[in-house]
Amino acid sequence: MAVSIQQQINWATGMLQAISSSPRLDSEILLAHCLDKNRSFLMTWPEYILQARQVECFADLVQRRLQLQPIAYLVGSREFYSIELKTTADTLVPRPETEMLVDKVLEIVGSLEQPRILELGTGTGAIALAIKRHKEDSQIVATDISLSALAIARDNAHTYNLEVDFIQSDWFQSLDTLKTFDVVVSNPPYIAADDPYLKQGDLPAEPSQALCSGPSGLEALDPIIKGSQQYLRHSGWIVLEHGYQQGQSVRQLLDENGYAQVTLFQDFNSLDRMTVAQKPPA
Prior knowledge:
The longest helix has 15 residues, at 52-66. The strands form three sheets. This protein has a seven-stranded mixed sheet with strand order 5-4-3-6-9-11-10, with helices on both faces. Strands 1-2 form a two-stranded antiparallel sheet. Helix content is 37%, strand content 21%. Strand 3 (116-120), helix 7 (126-134) and strand 4 form a beta-alpha-beta unit. By secondary structure, the chain is an alpha/beta fold. Helix 2 (23-35) runs antiparallel to helix 4 (52-66). It folds into two domains: 5-67, Helicase, Ruva Protein, domain 3 (Orthogonal Bundle); 90-278, Rossmann fold (3-Layer(aba) Sandwich), CATH 3.40.50. The protein contains ten helices and eleven strands. The chain is elongated, with a radius of gyration of 21 Å. The chain has helices spanning 5-16, 23-35, 39-44, 52-66, 71-75, 99-109, 126-134, 147-159, 221-231, 247-256, and strands at residues 77-80, 83-86, 116-120, 139-144, 165-168, 181-186, 191-192, 212-214, 232-241, 260-266, 272-278.
């Protein structure tokens, strides 16, 4: 039986309504992937008749989506800051709210020549690569404890011919203690272990070590804040993503560790999401 793009999208949208907040968008992304086209093709040619293998591909992806596998894992990529990034189950799926960290770092280093930037917990390399692409003379070191994640990050860097020094490290552990940076930036795991949010949506499919840091959710933020003092140049900046209920706790940690100009920023949902602070001048 011949089926069109429009018929398949309508079918999948109905199927995915129970598990997705954006069932039509999910359907379009998955079908475009099976057709090796962009979403505009689907909108331009809704009556296009699909080949049997395309119908089979789409049905398989819809069933896997119903099992709560993230869209980014199903299609193998996710767009972040206008960069299409290879994404697998070994990495956290890059999220739109994290783009504000890139905006802030670029604002900080915009007038600096060859700024040195350290990213902790790079995952797909999203933050580091977005910064490098828009600040070409930046010198970036990006760490992750996961060798699998670093392999993905290096692949993404190679795709865009971007030079970033990727290092396996448990936060600062493997870094040269004599090197300092203008900015330390991180989107670390910050969800508390007992937070019910970990069981919602796509999160159960994502690597737990990239989401959860421990009982309080501050177990990664605390050592990053403390350790960054050693690796930041005087007047350097720390840029951190955190949970929407952690703003005051992060401010307290920064205050206790001698940072200045501590500023909390909200994301596009008006939720506390990023805190920026400066290491005081010498």
